[in-house]
């Protein structure tokens, strides 16, 4: 029977459990389920075709893993010391943070964990190229006015696409301006909307048309064709869905990257409606908090 293991982001095991339904085993944040991989918005990494390996010793575990492939990331919520002793006997995998814009690591990266003292669960392939799905960047501590830019860097890195110079981007809920800063630095033309102002150092960048209005009053027809629509608005998911549906119906936007933010209880029903929009995907990015990122590309 094939299995798949899904790693929940820290703090969101319940969300992943809700999404997957009954699973074979819950190993802290790792949910092990029967069957082939399924869509799972709340999985930070998915372990494909994991296998159980009985091990007699630390050295034995390292030998078994090395015999499968070179690069391994460990998930060690239990038996941490033993797991680290095994990992120390495996080839070193570079843990250098990524410079935004550089290609994601291309080498296969497996994941493994100790289920108990003598049992390893190991998956030679995972959906994320990053250890445990943790996409870490060399940060810019002077340019952007908030840390929200990391979320957009991650989204653009994961999809392997980004606005080209001159592309028209709408950035909804843009204050204080982290996303607008990312887009302006890519050379895009940014229509940046928020009820609150942009930080002055962002507002000064070339190519930004800032409007201090509500994003919900914006009529797509009045804006015209746009290459990308970004939204990081704090609002109820159902309200964002209505806005997205208006833009989809207008046919005026090619690509979408939107944060679906939850307030209080996770609104699984509306999340499922986002996930069901044809040609789109819904993911919890490493830099997401209690929110998911909905992406639709042309
Ligand atoms: C998380 S912040 C956005 C951070 C931003 N992406 C950045 O990188 O700096 C959410 C923003 O949504 C804005 N917002 C809330 N309701 C809005 C509305 N109706 N129209 C436009 N912006 C709204 C808030 O003013 C707030 O600045």
Q: Could you characterize what this model shows?
A:
The protein is α/β, with parallel strands linked by helices and 298 residues long. It contains 9 helices and 16 strands. The strands form 3 sheets. Strands 12-11-10-13-14-16-15 form a 7-stranded mixed sheet, with helices on both faces. A 5-stranded antiparallel sheet has the order 2-3-1-4-9, with helices on one face. β11, α6 and β12 form a beta-alpha-beta unit. α2 (58-68) packs across α3 (80-87) and α4 (149-159) crosses α5. It binds S-adenosylmethionine. S-adenosylmethionine (SAM) binds at residues 146, 148-149, 172-179, 193-196, 214-216, 232-235.
Number-wise, the strands total 16
Spatial extent as radius of gyration: 21 Å
Enumerate the strands of the largest sheet in spatial order, edge to edge or round the barrel.
12-11-10-13-14-16-15
Distance between the termini: 37 Å
In N-to-C order, the SSE pattern is EHEEEEHEHEEEHEHEHEHEHEHEE
Question: What structural category arises from helix and sheet content?
Answer: alpha/beta
SS strand fraction: 25-35%
- Provide the helix percentage: 25-40%
- Averaged pLDDT: 97
Described by strand count, sense and barrel closure, the largest sheet is: 7 strands, mixed
């Amino acid at each position: 029977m094939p299995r798949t293991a899904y790693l929940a982001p820290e703090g969101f095991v319940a969300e992943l459990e809700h999404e997957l339904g009954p699973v074979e085993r819950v190993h802290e944040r790792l949910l092990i389920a029967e069957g082939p991989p399924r869509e799972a918005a709340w999985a930070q990494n998915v372990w494909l075709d994991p296998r159980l390996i009985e091990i007699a010793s630390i050295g034995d575990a390292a030998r078994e893993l090395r015999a499968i492939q070179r690069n391994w990331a460990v998930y060690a919520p239990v038996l941490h010391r033993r797991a680290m002793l095994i990992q120390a006997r495996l080839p070193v995998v570079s843990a250098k943070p990524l410079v935004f814009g550089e290609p994601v690591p291309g080498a296969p990266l497996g994941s493994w964990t100790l289920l108990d003292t003598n049992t390893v669960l190991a998956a030679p392939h995972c959906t994320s190229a990053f250890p445990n799905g943790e996409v870490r960047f060399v940060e810019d501590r002077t340019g952007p006015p908030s840390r929200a830019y990391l979320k957009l860097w991650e989204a653009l890195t994961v999809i392997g696409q980004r606005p080209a110079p001159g592309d028209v981007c709408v950035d909804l809920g843009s204050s204080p301006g982290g996303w607008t800063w990312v887009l302006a630095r890519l050379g895009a033309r940014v229509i940046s909307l928020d009820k609150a102002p942009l930080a002055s150092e962002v507002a000064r960048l070339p190519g930004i048309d800032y409007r201090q209005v509500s994003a919900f009053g914006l009529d797509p027809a009045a804006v015209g064709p746009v290459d990308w629509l970004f939204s990081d608005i704090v609002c109820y998911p159902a309200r964002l869905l209505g806005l997205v549906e208006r833009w989809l119906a207008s046919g005026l936007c090619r690509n979408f990257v939107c944060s679906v933010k939850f307030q209080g209880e996770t609104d699984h029903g509306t999340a499922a409606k986002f996930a069901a929009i044809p040609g789109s995907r819904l993911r919890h990015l490493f830099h997401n908090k209690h929110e998911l990122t909905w992406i639709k590309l042309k």
